[in-house]
Amino acid sequence: MALGPGFEWFVAWRHLRDLEKKSRRTLALGVTALILAALCLLAVRFSAHLPFLRRAHDAGFGGEWLESRPTLLIENLKTTGVIAAIAGVVLTILGVLFATFTVFTAFSIFGVFLGTCAPIIALSVMSGFEADLKTKIRATKADIVVSTADDRPFTDWQAVQKRFAGIPEIVASMAYIESEVIIKHETNPSGMGIVLRGIDAKAAPKVLDLARTLRQGRVAYLDHPADIPADEAELLQPIPGPPDPAGEGEDRGPRPRAVDPTPRPVLPGILLGEELFEHTLRVYVGSDVDIACPLCGVGPSGPMPKLKSFRVAGHFYTGMYEFDSKLAYVSLADAQKFLGMQGEIT
Length: 346
Known about the structure:
The protein is built from 13 helices and nine strands. It has 346 residues and is of the alpha+beta class. The strands form two sheets. A six-stranded mixed barrel has the order 1-2-9-6-8-7. Helix 5 packs across helix 6.
């Protein structure tokens, strides 16, 4: 007599389930923890409208404590809510398993659940980090970089670029030149080392994603430096008024700064990283900075430093400290002329 698969499943189910000893205490404890987590998170969400806090503050009871440490109370409620939510989810899952299967079966199923959940979460987090890191790197680096062997001068780059233009799979290509220089400003006279990169302003938004990372200014200012607006610091800086005619020596306050009719000299534009722009140099769009190259000049005794002024045309934010603190963009022609590499690229 042959037995069908239904009978085998019936026998297995009878061994897995415990119909006589069902316990729902773990399930009730998990639901209670979830309710506690919901109350704590709701209290954090509507902390400004809690009635007992408002009554205590109006009556003067506990007012100094609530005013001096309100953030501590909210943070404790938030931490309690998160811990209760995690414990509630775990206990609820165990409670459902205990109410359906035996203790050993429930722990076995829960162990399999944790064993598969942990690597899935880890792979998801790592995939998110990888995608974010690739996005930040691609904002400053191209997917493929072509260079010459043995550090030979790259002089035939225009012919190579024309060959790339005929390949349909290549969206855009851009020639660039890169060198380590020193940047200085009045707020940082000692200077600091950065990476100066000369780029093609027309192709850069397609290759480097500058349209997304640029916070202020325009990439077109690199090709048209005369369009760079005036320095905001000079426009905002007041000049002191004349002393009081009564002889008391009091200052009447600042007066608007007179506009200098002399036009400013046109300087090549430069785009700075966010950290370099705001914290290291503390400059504005339109400020003038000095770029020094230790070995770019030629003197009677050999190589000598070369100094040139640039005008800040904007700043960008990539999200990576290495790029935002040590990277600056100028036009390719200005970089070649400053570095003494006419007709060459990196």
